[in-house]
């Protein structure tokens, strides 16, 4: 057995590998080059095929009936997977659904994230962006951009969309971080299965109360749309409603904050491109897509084969799990010219950071609008910016990005 390939494959299951971009991208580049369809047996995990080429990820995403999200959409240690299943706390979100059920449940939120809704929301998002850029003035020219700004702004947006009170934001921020940062010692409530289940239970308690409140007194927000959605005359179960809230509140928050923070770091490290963007904000849409590609906040999803399938001459057996590596697809040399160069003018940009096909990210348009509006507010007021310490990535093989970005800057007040 090729020891180098074995180590590279196992890195995909190791949350700590994602704290070092050089390490994880060297592993992914090796797999793309020598074993793009690679069987991985990682300690503590059930085996899976690592899929690292852009074309292969697309081929699998295009066939949702052959490659299903259920029953194993997310890579977690086997012991945790079994413990959560026994407790019945594993959220049933869109990423764990397939077929007609997925289409029906996804439709609840479709209008809330469509073009019309984005147009109506832009005023509110702009107001929040200005408020958080103004907040940077309060730190006297130096802050941790992640913990002081980037994690708060998108949560404010998404929880405003849900219609939740401002007083609940600290609690939900803490729970969101603990849920998705459970493999990072600094962020997690604890490292054991029981600690993770306790976070899930806290979220269920909060969102079950929200469901009851919105069914008793509906309001004009997304929380009410979820709570009062009916299929064949019946509400979603409390658990499924809570799962929908969890998806919106956590994935919608963490992916956007990771993109904004990682995008700012990329601009700091590429000052010429920062100046180009400041001189011409019409470059922002392309720049945002490049930031999303560069950061790729969602590291992987799993699919399960429903029948035998041959991919690049390798037979995938019915029931096998396949890990779709989005950071790898987004650095694929066959698709992206100089994939390790950050380029705000990169067009076309066929990144897969939002997935593809029927499971394309429901909130992609909102995430891109939030980043665009924030940078449109920040960049014209930013006279200078530099790193003021070490940037640190979170330990996560699911959703992750920077957990610390200390910066020093000069910022003009708003007019």
What is the strand and helix layout of this fold?
Elements: H1 3-11, H2 21-34, E1 37-40, E2 48-51, H3 54-61, E3 67-68, H4 78-87, H5 99-110, H6 115-137, E4 142-144, H7 145-150, H8 152-162, H9 169-180, H10 193-216, H11 222-227, E5 230-231, E6 234-235, H12 238-269, H13 271-279, H14 284-295, E7 300-305, E8 309-311, E9 314-316, E10 321-325, H15 326-329, H16 364-378, E11 382-387, E12 392-393, E13 402-404, E14 406-411
Describe the structure using short key phrases.
415 residues, alpha+beta, three-stranded antiparallel β-sheet, 50% helix, globular
Notes on the structure:
The structure is a single chain. The chain has 415 residues and is of the alpha+beta class. 50% of the residues lie in helices and 12% in strands. The chain is built from 16 helices and 14 strands. The chain has helices at 3-11, 21-34, 54-61, 78-87, 99-110, 115-137, 145-150, 152-162, 169-180, 193-216, 222-227, 238-269, 271-279, 284-295, 326-329, 364-378; strands at 37-40, 48-51, 67-68, 142-144, 230-231, 234-235, 300-305, 309-311, 314-316, 321-325, 382-387, 392-393, 402-404, 406-411. The strands form 5 sheets. The protein has a 5-stranded mixed β-sheet, sandwiched between helices. Strand 1 and strand 2 form a beta hairpin. Helix 8 runs antiparallel to helix 12, helix 9 (169-180) crosses helix 10 (193-216) and helix 12 packs across helix 14. The radius of gyration is 21 Å and the shape is globular. The chain starts with a helix and ends with a strand. The model has no long low-confidence stretch (mean pLDDT 95).
């Amino acid at each position: 057995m090729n020891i180098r390939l074995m180590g590279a494959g196992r890195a995909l299951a190791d949350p700590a590998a994602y704290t070092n971009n050089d390490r994880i991208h060297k592993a992914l580049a090796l797999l793309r080059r020598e074993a793009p369809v690679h069987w991985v047996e990682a300690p503590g995990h059930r085996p899976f095929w690592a899929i690292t080429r852009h074309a292969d990820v697309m081929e699998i995403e295009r066939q949702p009936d052959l490659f299903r999200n259920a029953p194993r959409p997310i890579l977690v240690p086997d012991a945790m997977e079994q413990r959560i299943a026994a407790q019945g706390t594993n959220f049933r979100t869109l990423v764990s659904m397939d077929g007609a059920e997925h289409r029906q449940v996804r439709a609840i939120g479709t209008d809330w994230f469509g073009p019309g809704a984005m147009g109506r929301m832009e005023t509110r998002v702009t107001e929040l962006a200005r408020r958080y850029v103004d907040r940077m003035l309060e730190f006297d020219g130096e802050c941790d951009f992640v913990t002081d700004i980037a994690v708060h702004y998108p949560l404010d947006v998404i929880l405003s969309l849900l219609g939740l009170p401002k007083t609940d934001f600290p609690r939900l921020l803490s729970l969101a971080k603990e849920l998705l940062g459970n493999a990072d010692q600094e962020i997690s409530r604890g490292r054991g299965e029981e600690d993770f289940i306790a976070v899930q239970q806290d979220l269920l308690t909060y969102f079950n109360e929200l469901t009851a409140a919105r069914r008793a007194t509906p309001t004009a927000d997304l929380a009410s749309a979820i709570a009062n959605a009916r299929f064949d005359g019946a509400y979603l179960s409390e658990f499924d409603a809570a799962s929908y809230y969890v998806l919106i509140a956590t994935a919608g928050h963490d992916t956007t904050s990771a993109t904004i923070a990682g995008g700012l770091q990329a601009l700091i490290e590429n000052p010429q491109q920062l100046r180009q963007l400041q001189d011409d904000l019409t470059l922002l849409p392309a720049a945002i897509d490049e930031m999303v590609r560069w950061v790729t906040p969602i590291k992987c999803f799993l699919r399960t084969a429903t029948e035998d399938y041959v991919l690049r001459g390798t037979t995938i057996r019915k029931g096998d799990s396949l890990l779709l590596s989005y950071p790898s697809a987004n650095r694929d040399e066959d698709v992206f010219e100089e994939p390790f160069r950050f380029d705000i003018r990169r067009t076309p940009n066929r990144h897969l950071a939002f997935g593809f096909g029927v499971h394309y990210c429901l909130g992609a348009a909102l995430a891109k609008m939030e980043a665009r509006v924030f940078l449109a507010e920040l960049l014209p007021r930013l006279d200078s910016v530099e790193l003021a310490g070490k940037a640190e990535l979170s330990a996560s093989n699911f959703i992750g990005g920077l957990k610390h970005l200390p910066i020093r800057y000069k910022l003009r007040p708003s007019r």
